[in-house]
Write a structure and sequence with these properties.
The structure is a homodimer of 336-residue chains. The first copy, chain A, folds into 3 domains: 47 residues, 434 Repressor (Amino-terminal Domain) (Orthogonal Bundle), CATH 1.10.260; 129 residues, Response regulator (Rossmann fold); 132 residues, 3-Layer(aba) Sandwich (Rossmann fold). In chain A, 46% of the residues lie in helices and 17% in strands. The first copy, chain A, is built from 13 helices and 12 strands. In chain A, the strands form 2 sheets. Chain A has a 6-stranded parallel beta sheet with strand order 2-1-3-4-5-11, sandwiched between helices. A 6-stranded mixed beta sheet of chain A has the order 7-6-8-9-10-12, with helices on both faces. The model of chain A has no long low-confidence stretch (mean pLDDT 91). Chain A binds a DNA duplex (16 and 16 nucleotides) through helix 2 and helix 4.
DNA sequence: CTGAAAGCGCTTACAG
DNA sequence: CTGAAAGCGCTTACAG
């Protein structure tokens, strides 16, 4: 029952391992192996159900035909679906994927990257944490194929695929202003990376561009680490000190969910008592009686871009710079 | 910038590769390498930032320190969170994890398993599809460490971790009967594996045990492949032919979500017009005005059990049989 | 058209 | 206490 090796096939076929290696690597033509030999070998491979040992091949070639995927949290709807698309494409192209979640822990992020380097993955798709900057710079210096996802470092030139976060926030804010809201609060998290900064800036810019001095824009920044319960309290306090806020714009879907909890608890009805909109779509937003208007990220498209770019980098020149900013979609529903 | 190898360390330290290998594998004591040598080697390892090449080690030892995780769909809330827990534990123990989704496709499932075998993963956690039975039997014959998750083959003895699906459905049905519902419809999917069968049987048994002839139990089985829209139509038709159904019990969370869509579309109010309960918890079920009563699966506990069992199997005797049936929790909320 | 041999970077039985 | 050497299963430059 021992695994069967290339050598076994060679012996059975009465040819050398070289020959067998050529046929399994489709170099038979190029190396001008005779038709009969090729056929004999292929027949044996089928009969014995032989598949080359990927590890040995990896050692020899320095390629592992595997990719490393580092996300923030694979259990989260956004990243889970990103992982899904990436996996599907990767397997189709013959790549395995190793994944892991950083949970925004710097330590874990660094360890993961080391582990993946060690494992000689051929390419990386990374949702970086703030502290990963030097590790990413290192990766770049080593000329490893990688693409950053969802966020990047403005002062470090790399390949990336991100949403146009500024535009998403800007457009949504403009939409709210157009609807007549006059005191809009943007609820976001502190310590976010540039994707969160851009959302905040988009919001502020729209307030100043489109508000014409008549619209007030407030920003509430919640810490990342706190519990949902704690955040709910903070939101509560905030709303008590600003009772005349007429629209809430949440910067991520889990914050939006928090917002729904808040309105449920306060028995506020949307959009009559207050408008509620959010970044990121979510089942919850679609399947309420009052459906929530959102800035949606085209998840599949973004993931497909990322893996596509990575494949290109791995195929050829890792020196090209490919940066994609994907347009968000504003899905207008009932909540504003 | 070339990767630094064990040999480089040996040369720099003026010792043999054997010695270096012993120290990196913590066999220094056992092999009685002198303290000074150990220290010199360790110092160089730190200085040169050396980490052994996992691939080479894998080839030599036949172990890859990686696990294969095959789920139905990593983008789905349940499996995404399973993946999260498994990954966290695995990395803590020094294992990488390769994942992939079957989408219940037999072909894909078989290919994935082959790919993982090829990759020499040390152990498997598998959510099997129906057609994987022979492949699983084969895995068992090869004495590979593996544990089935969420479902298993009743006529094939294997390690597994599953929910007590029968009990979950039984208890929930009993709860509905106790609440006074008299015509209960169980909405499930066709072609499901034994986890779905058990849910249906639990439902039926409770109807006959607890209904005392006064409660009618109906079953609607929807095909797996159909779109959400198609399923909605089927549900619609079903309800039109059975307008007096007073409670709907959905067998999975995505079916429950379908149910919510249905009530939204029909403007039915829960629980006044109709009761709605579901298997599996979901954000959507918690964060409605009317919160949905569910049979919850303790996801983390189940995932933790699975990886724990796998670690045990990999450490020792893969011949032991470990089968865990986890109790569900009925979370009573407002929808019935 | 085909093969012998080196080598990828490790581990480990054996020898001293 | 330490090292020389074989070998894991492949690929590939070289030779014929």
């Amino acid at each position: 029952m021992a695994r069967i090796s290339l050598k076994d096939i060679a012996k059975a076929a009465g040819v050398s391992v070289t020959t067998v290696s050529f046929v399994i690597n489709n170099k038979a033509r190029e190396k001008r192996i005779s038709e009969q030999v090729v056929e004999k070998v292929n027949k044996l491979i089928r009969e014995k159900n032989f598949t080359p040992n990927t590890i040995a091949r990896g050692l020899r070639t320095g390629k592992s035909t595997s990719l490393g995927l580092i996300v923030e949290d694979i259990g989260n709807h956004f990243f889970g679906n990103v992982a899904k698309t990436i996996e599907m494409t990767a397997y189709k192209k013959g790549y395995k994927v190793l994944y892991s979640s950083t949970d925004n822990s710097e330590k874990k992020a660094r360890e993961l990257l080391d582990m993946m380097k060690n494992q000689q993955v051929d390419g990386y798709i990374i949702t970086p944490t703030k502290g990963m900057k030097s590790a990413i710079a290192q990766l770049k210096k080593e000329k490893k194929p990688f693409v950053l996802f969802d966020r990047y470092f403005p002062d470090l030139e790399t390949n990336y695929v991100v949403l146009d976060n500024f535009k998403g926030a800007y457009d949504m804010t403009e939409f709210l202003i157009g609807k007549g809201y006059r005191k809009i609060a943007f609820v976001t998290i502190l310590n976010g990376m540039n994707q969160m900064q851009n959302r905040k800036q988009g919001f502020k810019k729209a307030i100043s561009d489109k508000g014409k001095g008549k619209v007030e824009g407030l920003v509430l920044e919640l810490p990342y680490e706190i519990t949902a319960e704690g955040n709910l309290d903070r939101l509560n306090e905030f709303m008590e000190s600003h009772p005349d806020v007429d629209a809430l714009f949440f910067a991520t879907n889990y914050l939006g969910i928090l917002g729904i909890q808040y309105t449920l608890r306060k028995q506020l009805s949307i959009p009559d008592d207050i408008a509620l909109v959010s970044f990121d779509d979510h089942d919850l937003f679609r399947l309420q009686k009052i459906r929530i208007t959102v800035v949606a990220q085209p998840i599949e498209k973004m993931a497909a871009e990322a893996i596509d770019i990575l494949m290109k980098l791995m195929a050829g020149e890792p020196s090209v710079l490919i940066q994609k900013t994907i347009s968000p979609e504003i899905l207008i529903r009932d909540s504003a």
